[in-house]
Amino acid sequence: MEAYLQHLVAQSVGFALALVCVVAFFESLALVGLLLPGTVMMATLGALIGSGQVGLYEAWLAAGVGCFLGDWASYFIGRGFKEPLHNWSFLKRYQALLDKTGNALEKHSFATVILGRFIGPTRPLVPLVAGMLNLPPYKFAPPNIVGCITWPPVYFLPGILAGVAIDIPHSSDSTLFKWLLFTTVVLIWLSGWLVWRWVRSSKAKADAMTKWLPLARLRIITAISLAATAYSIFMLSKQPLMPIYAHLLHHVITR
C-alpha cells in the first residue's frame, strides 16, 4: 500500500492531496467507512508526510475537507432515508451500536459527535444516526467542525513518527532507536486505552473484554503499563539519536 501511494505521490503533489481528501471522505462516509481500512490508510499517508513527500498542513486541510464532506453526506443520507435504513438488513447487524450511538446523541450530542470521530466503528455511523434522529444542523455543525479539524493530525501521527524515523541514517544505533520508538508509541496507546476502560468501568456495560479484565486486574495492569510507558519515554529521551529525530520532526511540523 505504502509503495503504491509513494508512486502516486511522486507523480503530483496535487494528486497526493486529492488522495488524502478522498481517503478522509470515504473513511467518514456512512457505512462505507465500516468496510475500509481507513486507519491504516491514514497512517500510511502520515508516513508520506513524515518522509517529507507531502506537506503536513496541506494534507491536514485536505483531510479536513474530506472529513467534512463525508460527514455531511452521511448526515443527509440519514435524514433523507431514515425509514429504508431502519429496515435494511445490513444495518441491522450494527443495531446495538446504532442504539448506543442514538442514546448518546440524545443525551450529549456535542460530545458524541466529536468523540465518535475518533472511534473507528462509530466514525461513519454518528453523522448517519444524527440525520436519522433529525438532530438540527445547527447542533450538528459546531462539534462536526471541531472533530474534522482535530481528527486528521491524530490519525496521521503514527505514520508521521514512522516516516521521520525512516530518514534517520541506518546504523546499529538507529535500529535500536526505531524499536524503542515503536515500543514507546505502542505503550502510550495501550496505557491510554487501559485508562479509558478504567475511567468508564463504573458506567459502561460488561463486554467481551470484561471477562479478561475485571476491575481489580485492570487497575494492576494499568499501573504496570503506565510505569512501563514512563520508563520507555525516559530511555528514549536518553538515546543519542533523539536530538536528530526531534530536529527532523520539528522540520516536518514547521515547514
Automatic annotation (TrEMBL):
Record domain VTT: where: 36-159
Protein's cellular compartments: Cell membrane
Keywords carried by this UniProt record: Cell membrane, Membrane, Transmembrane, Transmembrane helix
Membrane topology (UniProt): Multi-pass membrane protein
Main location: membrane
Regions crossing the membrane: 12-36, 56-77, 176-196, 216-236
InterPro entries given in the database record: DedA-like (IPR032818), VTT_dom (IPR032816)
Family affiliation: Belongs to the DedA family.
Protein name per the record: DedA family protein
Organism: Rouxiella chamberiensis
